[in-house]
Write a structure and sequence with these properties.
Chain lengths: ~600, ~500
């Protein structure tokens, strides 16, 4: 596509959500007193449409302009294009879902509930802002734009996390924000150091230059950790299980589906993946990443099956899946020759996870307000994305096949085995999710079911279908991986079977003997001991600071006392002057007499 | 208009305005308002004329000899006119804000008279051509800001004024001693004549280093370098326009500007690097940056928190000065402008909150976003800029400081920058959370300390418009930084023209 139309389309795609954002306060201001405007309407839901249209129609293109920040450079290519498509689609579906999800709150707001109105206004404002950030970082090729998009997305999402205002939501938001700020700091450090040493303002320059720059691998480490906080690598994942469950369901869907992928995108654009000249230090970084990824994949699965809320289980499943993606990305550093084929697998896997996880989250919300469908159909539709995520169906199977072939041909069967073990965990997590949803539905009071052709069910079913049929419509390269021949299927399906078997065994055991230790494993794992340690440190620190403050106050008081003494001495001198004046006559006579005596003695 | 006349005219507008204001009776509100605004606009246009003229290669200078070897010099060079431009523009906004803020309060004649004297002093500082002239206007600045600091006349205000005088008069004395010693050593050094000091051999090295630190101490009090910063948080008792003035436009900037002049135009960057002075500056600046942010965390009131934030942020300028190389210079000069824009926005917002709702403490900020959305939006923009998030302009300063630190061979400075960003986030983000995400009196929880409905919109128009304007400038200066007249481009041009070795 030539420059001018691309410039126009790209600008519209990024500006449209911002224009919708500006529309919200206008509507609030123009609404009649006592009849609040309906903010989350059809026009509001169209925010990602221009971006989706752009992503589907344009394969490659670039835009360069000088006046933006440090020099703007936006592109679309084989990696960003599919991710942009999937992101925009997920945001679109989640937005339509949100319209139905928040309908109850909208009714309350119109009826006069001020708190509901405030919450809705915030949601209506922050959702398009987060979307803009997400879209910007996907097309940005210059560092400043990328950082802008990432920061905008991260900080605006805080409002989505704390939407409901409950205590859990505030805790989740606090954890989210603290780790987000830490991540921003690490990313900034890596970007400043890298861009400064290399002397570039583009991500491509950073990638290339990191190989030769002195200390390049440490820049890579900082960037991996910084983006890894967003992507939920093990150790830095603490915020994920606290924040994702407490957000409203459509927000959870985009948080888990689209926004944690931004961390992965950060790795893809800044790390020198697939560069055979990268050298040994980067291979070691890759090995660390691989280990961390596999630990996350398996550990999150083990912890996640102990959770009791379906959204918490899904959050841990996200950590587990991102662990697998981390491991795959790490292979780009360990075995650069494999990267061209592997990057296709990574993009497919990420796209598949985005839509499937989105469908799963939306499905959790569906369970609370089921549409008028026969129960068996409903549960089949709920189970389909779960099976796909476990790698048994559709896009999950295709993704798994692609990276399995690449890794086997590259000579890394051990990695494949570990990833398959992680897939066992995924299967168990999916079973646990469906089980928790079943339990919740059994215990919940029957609320009215809704018609099939309304926002929530439509959005959910569309996301579901899009997730399942992903390899066909996403892009040419990705279909080339093809489908596994029938002979290979057992090799791909055994993790699912093993996971299901394990789940059934554990369920049978739990029926006999209640596994009480599960209650002692709250979502957020390491967060709680860390928070307690921080409180202890803080109290001790405050005692020390109070002592320091008192010492400083004493020092200042001493100086002030000295100043008072000096002023008093000066006042004393005035009195001395008075004294002199009173006794001047006598003094003069004494001095004169003394001089006279002296002269007498001298003459004598 | 010939060069000297234009300089004198620009200086004279504020002096003349001050005189007229002192002559007008207290009750002549409209005349005084017209005079203030008129003087600010005339000054801004004269400065703009000088900028245009300088770009065409004209000279603007006026000088006369005070003693045989000592001259009073006012000369417009690229750096000086950049600072004059910033102060004139922000002056206009502060004037509008002060007119709105002090409506219905007593002693406005006194306030605006000294206000105009203050702007005259700042203009003199920016255009000073040698240390003597600089000192004259520096002391004039101290004396004209004292009545502004103690304007309210309460016990706390007078105590704060005493502390302010103690610090700044001592600083002026130290500065004078340094200036005299430097004069005795090398004669009358005009800004830009770096070769005079460069001629001195290693036997005078100790003297040069000692004089440098003496002069830095003198400038450092106004520039709020730790441990000379004590007056700044106490001066928060002054009305908001005065705080905005002190922090963003005049006083603190004058100190930082003095340090910039000292290192670039008196000693020269190469001599400073040779004498090892830059490392010391970087160390002092880093300590100030971290200390200021740590103290800000502990504050419970809004304006003292912003004051400590200023202490921390102005040292970014000193840090940039200490980084050898054009990128560090660009960072220092551009941050002079950026920090002014962001800080003035934040202080305007703090003043709006205090005037409209009686809010002084941080825990009274709950739910203000609903009651005063435009002001809170401006506050958000300023706070995000302080944290260093693009597209607000603060990010560009951090970027260039990072680049400059690598260029100067001090990569550890990036750790200081990142720590400072984290600390800034730690004390600004809770404020934003309270503004937007906590229920407040407008949601039915609690009450405003002292609500006065000052205007049809959320507050008086004279208070709201300057706030929105400066916030908009913060955003535009960042997002449109590549355009020819953005602060960043200006700073880059000054660096390329004057300071490239």
């Amino acid at each position: 596509m030539s420059d001018a139309p691309l410039a126009l389309t790209l600008s519209v795609a990024l500006l449209w959500p911002l224009l919708l954002l500006l529309r919200v306060p206008l509507m609030v201001a123009l609404a009649d007193r006592g009849r609040p405007a309906i903010l989350i309407d059809t026009i509001w839901c169209t925010a990602p449409l221009p971006a989706l249209a752009l992503a589907l129609s344009v394969d490659e293109g670039a835009l360069v302009f000088d006046w933006w920040l440090l020099g703007g450079h936006w592109t679309l290519d084989g990696t960003r294009g599919p991710l942009l498509t999937v992101t925009a689609l997920l945001w679109l579906m989640a937005g339509i879902y949100a319209r139905g999800y928040l309908a109850g709150e909208q009714v309350r707001a119109v009826a006069g509930d001020g708190a509901a109105e405030a919450r809705l206004t915030r949601f209506a404002l922050l959702w398009p802002l987060t979307l803009s950030g997400n879209l910007l970082l996907l097309v940005a090729e210059d560092i400043a734009s990328f950082y802008t998009g990432f920061a905008m997305m991260t900080f605006a999402a805080y409002g989505l996390v704390v939407h409901s205002g409950t205590r859990d939501a505030r805790l989740g938001g606090c954890a989210y924000l603290m780790m987000a700020v830490l991540g921003e700091g690490l990313i900034l450090a890596g970007l400043l150091w890298g861009a400064g040493s290399i002397g570039t303002t583009t991500l491509g320059g950073l990638r290339q230059g990191m190989i030769e720059a002195p200390g390049g691998v440490w820049m890579g480490l900082l960037l991996w950790l910084g983006f890894g906080i967003k992507a939920g690598i093990v150790g830095l994942h603490l915020w994920l299980p606290l924040a994702h469950p407490v957000a409203p369901t459509p927000a959870s869907a985009v948080l888990s589906g689209a926004m944690i992928k931004a961390g992965m995108v950060g790795w893809l654009v800044t790390l020198p993946l697939g560069e055979s000249t990268a050298g040994d230090p980067f291979a070691w970084l890759g090995r660390t990443m691989l280990a961390a990824g596999l630990v996350a994949a398996i550990g999150a699965a083990l912890y996640g099956v102990c959770q009791r809320q379906p959204k918490a289980v899904l959050a841990y499943s996200s950590i587990s899946q991102m662990g697998m993606i981390t491991a795959l990305v790490a292979m780009g550093l360990i075995a650069p020759a494999l990267w061209p084929a592997l990057s296709v697998a990574v993009v497919l896997f990420a796209a598949h996870h985005a839509l499937t996880k989105g469908a799963l989250f939306l499905g959790v919300g569906i369970g609370e307000h089921p549409p008028r469908l026969p129960a068996w159909l409903l549960w089949t539709l709920l189970a389909l994305p779960a099976l796909s995520l476990s790698g048994a169906l559709a896009s999950g199977l295709a993704a798994k096949w692609v990276f399995k072939t690449v890794l086997y041909e590259g000579g890394y069967p051990a990695v494949v085995t570990w990833l398959s073990l992680a897939a066992v965990g995924t299967a168990a997590l999916m079973a646990r999710t469906l089980w928790c949803q079943w339990q919740d539905e059994c215990q919940a009071a029957p609320t009215g079911s809704m018609p099939l052709v309304s926002s929530m069910p439509l959005a959910w079913v569309t996301t579901l279908l899009a997730a399942l049929t992903l390899p066909w419509w996403l892009g040419g390269e990705l279909v080339e991986g093809g489908w596994p021949p029938l002979a290979e299927l057992p090799g791909l399906l055994w993790p699912l079977a093993l996971g299901l078997l394990g789940s059934v065994v554990v369920w049978a055991v739990a029926r006999r003997r209640a596994l009480r230790f599960i209650h002692r494993l709250p979502p957020g794992d390491l967060w709680w001991p860390l928070a307690r340690a921080w409180q202890a440190l803080r109290t001790r620190g405050q005692v020390r600071l109070a002592r320091l403050g008192r010492a400083q106050a004493g020092w200042v008081a001493w100086w002030v006392a000295r100043e008072r003494d000096a002023v008093r001495a000066l006042d004393g001198m005035t009195r001395g002057e008075e004294w002199l004046r009173h006794h001047a006559a006598v003094l003069m006579m004494v001095v004169a007499a003394g001089l006279a005596l002296l002269m007498l003695f001298r003459l004598a | 208009m010939s060069g000297g006349l234009l300089v004198l005219a620009a200086l004279g507008t504020s002096l003349f305005a001050a005189l007229l204001i002192f002559l007008l009776p207290e009750r002549a509100f409209r005349a005084r308002t017209g005079l203030n605004l008129g003087a600010a606009l005339i000054k801004l246009s004269l400065v703009a004329w000088m900028v245009w003229g300088l770009s065409r290669g004209r000279e603007y200078a006026v000088e006369f000899a005070v003693l045989e070897e000592l001259a009073f010099v006012l000369r417009a060079d690229a750096l000086g006119i950049m600072f004059a431009g910033l102060s004139s523009l922000l002056w206009l906004f502060t004037t509008v804000y002060a007119i709105g803020y002090l409506e219905d309060s007593p002693n406005r004649k006194r306030f605006f008279g000294f206000f105009s004297l203050c702007v005259a002093s700042t203009f003199g500082i920016s255009l000073a051509g040698n240390l003597f002239t600089f000192l004259v206007f520096y002391e004039l600045l101290t004396l004209s800001t004292y009545p502004l600091v103690v304007h309210r006349g309460t016990y706390r205000a007078l105590a704060a004024g005493r502390v302010y005088l103690r610090y700044t008069l001592t600083a002026g004395l130290v500065l004078m001693i340094g200036m005299v010693a430097l004069h005795a050593l090398a004669g009358d050094i005009r800004f830009g004549q770096r070769e005079l000091l460069a001629e001195f051999g290693p036997e005078d090295r100790l003297m040069l280093v000692g004089l440098f630190w003496v002069l830095i101490a003198g400038f450092g009090v106004k520039a709020a370098i730790v441990p000379l910063h004590g007056w700044l948080p106490r001066a928060m008792v002054a009305p908001a326009p005065v705080s905005a003035l002190l922090h963003a436009v005049a006083v603190v900037k004058a100190g930082a500007f003095g340090i910039v002049r000292l290192v670039y135009d008196v000693y020269g960057i190469e001599l400073s690097a040779k004498l090892g002075l830059l490392n010391g500056l970087v160390a002092v600046a880093s300590a100030t940056i971290l200390y200021g942010s740590l103290r800000a965390l502990a504050q419970q009131e809004l304006k003292p928190r912003l004051a400590y934030s200023t202490v921390s942020q102005v040292s970014y300028i000193v840090l940039g000065v200490g980084l050898f190389g054009p990128l560090g210079t660009i960072a220092a000069l551009s941050h002079l402008l950026h920090q002014g824009l962001m800080k003035i926005t934040l202080f305007f917002c703090a003043g709006n909150y205090a005037e409209e709702l009686g809010i002084h403490r941080i825990d009274e900020l709950d739910g203000v976003g609903r009651r005063m959305p435009l002001t809170s939006l401006a506050f958000t923009v300023g706070a995000l800029g302080m944290i260093g998030l693009p597209p607000v302009v603060g990010f560009l300063s951090k970027w260039y400081l990072g680049m400059g630190s690598i260029q100067a061979g001090m990569p550890w400075v990036i750790a200081v920058l990142v720590a400072s960003s984290l600390l800034n986030a730690a004390y600004f983000l809770p404020l934003l959370d309270r503004l937007w995400f906590r229920p407040g009196p407008d949601h039915g929880v609690g009450e405003w300390p002292e609500e006065r409905r000052l205007g049809r919109l959320e507050t008086h128009a004279w208070l709201l418009v300057p706030t929105m304007a400066t916030a908009l400038f913060c955003l535009m200066a960042g997002a449109l930084a590549g355009l020819p007249f953005s602060p960043l481009e200006w700073a880059t041009r000054v660096t390329n023209v004057e300071y490239l070795p």
